[in-house]
Specification:
339 residues, alpha/beta, 7-stranded parallel β-sheet, binds nicotinamide-adenine-dinucleotide, binds UDP-4-deoxy-4-formamido-beta-L-arabinopyranose
Length: 339
């Protein structure tokens, strides 16, 4: 059993990870300022696990408040750092807000980790760092491309900050997880993704259209150089993704990681098109989702999917949930939102 500080722990990926941590006997302290999540998520976590993790409504950019948290909960073994703003388009409109929130949160946390002798961090990065890869599937050795957005840039800079700090502090160990496209919800439907306003991402948009909250799904372009003309992504079940964090922690806490910083792709290794996702969602849930093809969305990558071999072999982690289950869970969660 370990004592884990989870920033952003009431968010989409954070809440699913907290559930896995609790179910595996860990003690969890959540820090979240609820800027993009809801305190009711804690009830969902309780319904699934029967445990109320410690919760601190604190902004990670506030050094003094973060220090208070670390004084209140001594001897933390590791931090999983999810807290960040993540809307790509908003980051183009408000770059300073993104640099401040995502980077100041990380800098504060790392400084406190050094001061409080917390040696391990798992950091949420993104496949966005690869841009359009030259080779597919993309592995961790692929070059980092110039970021398409301030959001993407915060992830690239964050990875560099972690690497530089590790070089200067031999006691620090970090796992950087580059997530591909997380989708779905906990099978219990007690927790899931709660998009803020009109969803930007494909899966919540499909689910909300199926529920009648949106009139039709707009498919952004069918003239890409892909088999059916629509973009291809590596969609990963959020519970599988949550389990990757447990695998990363086990790797760190059992001192299995030789390098100070290790980077892992967290994806399925399977690329699926927008049309394949839509068709499968309709089939497994036995419903129709009104849709139409519209122009390409600015900044979209044509196709990207992961080579997850490094995580499969080194972390003994693999994405296992069939797509059909993930899409059923996404729909079950959406239906729960109406209640
Ligand atoms: P989310 O918005 O659901 O969760 C992030 C949580 O962090 C929210 O609960 C929010 O309230 C909190 N938060 C934000 N800024 C904070 C601050 N300054 N102090 C305290 N709490 C703060 O997002 P998510 O989808 O769960 O993403 C989690 C992490 O994974 C983020 O770092 C995100 O950039 C990264 N990521 C997400 C995706 C994705 O598609 N969802 C893909 C790749 C990487
Ligand atoms: C997937 C595909 C769209 C909505 C974004 C961020 C990325 C990462 C994950 C955090 C694309 C198409 C979508 C719709 C559509 N986040 N689409 N109609 O763009 O791969 O990645 O989220 O790190 O950084 O950029 O995900 O779900 O928005 O889009 O046709 O209404 O679905 O064009 O091909 P994306 P997405």
């Amino acid at each position: 059993m370990a004592k884990i500080l989870v920033t952003g722990g009431t968010g989409y990926i954070g809440s699913h990870t907290v559930v896995e941590l609790l179910q595996n006997g860990n003690e969890v302290i959540i820090v979240d300022n609820l800027s993009n999540s809801n305190v009711q998520v804690l009830e969902g976590i309780y319904k699934i696990t029967g445990i109320n993790p410690a919760f601190e409504n604190v902004d990670c950019t506030d050094y003094v408040q973060m220090e208070r948290v670390l004084n209140k909960y001594p001897n933390i073994d590791a931090v999983i750092h999810f807290a960040a703003s993540k809307a790509v388009a908003e980051s183009v409109e408000k770059p300073l807000m993104y640099y401040r929130n995502n980077l100041l949160s990380l800098i504060n946390l790392l400084e406190l980790m050094l001061n409080y002798k917390i040696p391990n961090i798992v950091f949420s990065s993104s496949c966005t760092v690869y841009g359009q890869p030259d080779k597919l599937p993309v592995d961790e050795k692929a070059p980092i491309k110039k970021a398409e957005s301030p959001y993407g840039n915060t992830k690239q800079i964050a990875e560099e900050i972690i690497t530089d700090l590790a070089a200067a502090n031999k006691q620090l160990k970090a796992v950087v997880l580059r997530y591909f496209n997380p989708i779905g919800a906990h099978p219990s439907a007690h927790i899931g993704e709660i998009p803020n306003g009109i969803p930007n991402n494909l899966m919540p948009y499909i689910a909300q259209t199926a529920a009648g909250k949106r009139t039709e799904l707009k498919i952004y372009g069918n003239d890409y150089n892909t088999p059916d003309g629509t973009c291809i992504r590596d969609y990963i079940d959020v519970v599988d993704l949550a389990k990757a964090h447990l695998a990363a922690l086990t790797h760190l806490l059992n001192n299995k990681q030789e390098k100070q910083v290790e980077v892992f792709n967290v994806g399925t290794g399977r690329g699926l098109s927008v049309l394949e996702m839509l068709t499968t969602f309709q089939e497994v849930n036995k419903l129709k989702v009104p849709h139409k093809i519209v122009a390409r969305r600015k900044g979209d990558i044509e196709q990207v999917w992961a080579d997850p071999t490094h995580a499969n072999n080194t972390l003994q982690w693999k994405a296992l949930t069939p797509l059909t289950e993930t899409l059923k869970n996404a729909w079950k969660w959406e239906q729960n939102q109406k209640k």
